[in-house]
Amino acid sequence: MTAFDKIVDLFMFRAQSDENLSEMPKITQGSIVWGLILRASVIIILSMIVIGFYKLYNYWWLAFFLLWLLAVYPAYRQFQIFNNRIKKIEEATLCGTCKYFEPTGQLCKLFDEHVSTNYIPCEGENWEPKSFED
Questions:
Q1: pTM over 0.90
Q2: Start-end of H helices in 15-98
Q3: Taking Cα atoms as reference points, which of 42, 60, 43 lies closest to residue 51?
Q4: Is residue 43 part of a domain?
Q5: Partner of 110 for a Cys bridge, out of 93, 100, 122, 128, CB 3.0 to 4.6 A?
Q6: CA 73 → CA 12, 28, 46, distances in Å?
Q7: What's phi and psi for 107, nearest 5 deg?
Q8: Can you tell me whether residue 100 is helix, strand or coil?
């Protein structure tokens, strides 16, 4: 997979398989937000150019529709898939119950490494339970 393919995957919100929890994450909460900002800015700029060039001032609402259809809704769907993946990781791994697990990036804060079902950064030695009093 080339760097261009990776950029296109992020731009198009192509998700990794939800069942394959053993891989390191390609989509994180930060990449979803970055893709949303990137797509929204491209749509806004292009719609401003098209509306100004063709003088379609009565069709400004079309830009908001495109913004929802091509930027916000795909990000929302990807965020739902991401949350389901995190719930499965939390249930399937020891890291999911550790206080160092950061679900937004699917990583261990102590070692700053991504967690998967096949890879636990500390191998369970630095595991500490989450405190649920917060």
A1: no
A2: 29-54, 60-67, 73-92
A3: 60
A4: yes
A5: 100
A6: 12, 17, 19
A7: -140, 165
A8: coil
